Amino acid sequence: MIQELLLVAVGACAAVAVYAGAAARVVKQYERGVVFRFGRLRDDIRSPGFTMILPGVDRIHKVNMQIVTMPVPAQEGITRDNVTVRVDAVVYFKVVDAAEALVRVEDYKFAVSQMSQTSLRSIIGKSDLDDLLSNREKLNQGLELMLDSPAIGWGVQIDRVEIKDVSLPETMKRSMARQAEADRERRARVINADAELQASKKLAEAAAVMSDQPAALQLRLLQTVVAVAAEKNSTLVLPFPVELLRFLERSTVGPAAAMSDTPEMAPAPQTPQAPPVPPVPVAPPVSEAYLKGAAHAAERVEPVEDLTGASVEPGPPEEAA
Length: 321
Prior knowledge:
- By secondary structure, the chain is an alpha+beta fold.
- The chain contains nine helices and ten strands.
């Protein structure tokens, strides 16, 4: 009898141990347990620690509540200013509602990954190249809003989105390098011109001071001599006063002016010449035949009566010269 009771007790303990082993579950600190009883979601979400379920009736699913780091594959697109770029990013998200993450979407990680790729392509098409290179913070915020809107319904919260790298074609890189080099050269020229302007103003002020105080020029000359003599070189500096040059100039100009003031010999007077006599026209020679013909012509001319009744006789022929 006692043996039978012992066997029953051992069998009961074994059954309880098996049941407890099948019903016992441990939920880790960074997890939450979602229980389905006969396929129906239970309202109570199991907290971290030891928990029990009904074996064969309940199914428990553990959902990780940690922040997930998901890299977004590089997406190639054309920007708004028609430049082909290749952009990759990274998404940080976490599950805030374990039940919604299991019920609302089949695989929330895959859904977030596909939505991230689509949103990244959309951001590339709406942005300029300068925004992708220099204004990434604004693009990150816009991309985060695009991902966070549908993810809230899945029990997922987008914590942060970062654009990692922007790959450009080699031709675009060379063009941007030339542009940057030209810009740096332009700024260098502007700085040099500004320096020349400031130096010219200072030199003009120094010249004005030295013109008012001639001794300042001598002091400056002595300072230059000291600066040159301080170095160990073979250069010999001999100051030459400007007054000596002026003295030599005056002494050279004096004799030249005296020679220019000496009167020169007046040229001898020239006798006036008589005006030229115009040539006398000479009559062409007349032959004897011409004279005889003129005489016969004069003999044959008949007298003509005038209207007044007087006769007009031809005069004697003129003698040939």
